[in-house]
Amino acid sequence: MGRRREAVFDIYNLVIAAFLIVSPWLFALTRETARVDAWLSGIVIALLCLAALRLFAEWEEWIVLVCGAWVVASPWLLGFPHTTAMRVDVGIGIVVMYMAALELWLIHYDAPTARPWS
Q1: Considering only CA atoms, which of 91, 48, 85 is closest in space to residue 72?
Q2: Is the dihedral of CA 51, 22, 39, 99 positive or negative?
Q3: DSSP 8-state symbol, 6
């Protein structure tokens, strides 16, 4: 059985999730809430991407998209706006959402078209 061509986006999101997991150390995040949010969000995204690589299900991509939205919104919802952690979360969340949305788009709208003359 061959790999899905869209699986590369799961690999990208897996790498981004790993970056999110180590971001508290890379950026010396001081707020406990921001550190725990980065770790938990990164772990959830990584597990979903690993599951999608092993056995694809479209719902996993939708959950990754929602997780990316959570990462973007979490600085305001958890109370650490205007911090380095906010900048990291917003940047990573946007990239995660973009990769998940692009994969969903490729699954649904980039189907091979049949040539009428073949």
Answers
A1: 91
A2: negative
A3: T
